[in-house]
Amino acid sequence: MNHGSRGFSCPGLAQTGSPPPQNQRTRNPILKTTPQPLYLCGPTASGKSRHALTLAKELNGEIVNADALQLYRGIETITASPSEEDRNLAPHHLYGIADPSDTFDAALYRRVALPLLEDISSRGKLPIVVGGSGLYLKFLTHEPDDLPPANSDLRKELEALSLDEMVRRLELIDPPEANRIDRSNPRYVQRALEISLMSGRPVSEQRTSFKFSTGPLHGILISWEPGALEARIRERTALMLEDGAAEQLDSLTKPGPAVSRAIGVPQLKRLLKGEIDRKTCEEEIVIATRQYAKRQRSWFRRETWLTPVPGDCSEKQIISAAHNLLHGGPS
């Protein structure tokens, strides 16, 4: 049973089901009020999916993806998306809803996710938003100031540029953002250029242009010491290769820019071309993932509303933390 999304319509996205009749919508008996989302955040390889299943079972919840790349279908092994077996244990939403050739940004994610969260809550279930994509989460938790929509013509123009050319343009348009951004990530550089060019304002001036939270926030941050997290990253990378990540990538007919630039994909492409061996590929993916996890930890440290919980906590501990956040004490 592969659960998609309810209650939204967006061209090119998979749609399944529809909201139940109004008379079937009930309040969650485990929670004291209409359920607000519980956010389960953390860096890559921190064990979010496992903890989400525990909480969904305990709190009558439904899991909503907030990982930018797990939105795409056809790359489930590469992105470590929840397995079919795990998806059968609890409803999962917004996994594999976009074609690999599509481009999904945080603004579109917000438009798709908000009606879904409202629908889950209206049925008396707890939405459990799970992911490590900080900007996507921010677009849900804090109403963003108006940003320009993606422009397909401008996007094609920028996609034709090399990474170095895009960085040079960003340096001219917005030096503070060029110094702040991860210059090795073409997707980030391209979007910064898009926003600056479309709005006529440097994106660095708009980066903090979020309004107040749209409601009470309840969030758990899964935390690991860097050394322990790197060990988990190494284990997951080895498993990803064993499970056929390279073959999965090779089967894609036309991956778009977002998928093509995902961590692991450039390295797997080089492996498939015979430019590097498997050992080198694995090590390069580990390094890129470790660097990404470091950036994620820096982002989440600024989100002071999140409650840190050790990554190796027990089921009882994660459940207790969730109960404390949702209604001020253990069950």
The overall strand count is 8
Helix content: 40-55%
**Count of separate DSSP helical elements:** 15
CATH C-level class of the largest domain is Alpha Beta
Shape: globular
Number of domains: 2
Q: Sketch the major β-sheet.
A: 6 strands, parallel
The percentage of residues in β strands lies in 5-15%
Secondary-structure class: alpha/beta
**Helix-strand pattern:** EHEHEHEHEHHHHHEEHHHHHEH
* CATH evolutionary superfamily of the largest domain: P-loop containing nucleotide triphosphate hydrolases
CATH topology of the largest domain: Rossmann fold
Architecture overview:
The chain is of the alpha/beta class and 331 residues long. It folds into two domains: 29-144 and 211-327, Rossmann fold (3-Layer(aba) Sandwich); 152-208, Histone, subunit A (Orthogonal Bundle), CATH 1.10.20.140. Helix content is 47%, strand content 11%. The protein has 15 helices and eight strands. It has helices at residues 48-59, 84-87, 106-122, 134-141, 152-159, 163-173, 175-180, 186-199, 203-206, 226-242, 245-250, 257-260, 265-272, 278-302, 315-327, and strands spanning 38-41, 61-65, 92-93, 126-131, 142-144, 210-213, 218-223, 306-310. The strands form two sheets. Strands 3-2-4-1-7-8 form a six-stranded parallel beta sheet, sandwiched between helices. Strand 2, helix 2 (84-87) and strand 3 form a beta-alpha-beta unit. Helix 1 packs across helix 15 (315-327), helix 3 (106-122) packs across helix 4 (134-141) and helix 10 crosses helix 14 (278-302). The longest helix has 25 residues, at 278-302. The model is unreliable at 1-12 and 14-33 (pLDDT under 50).
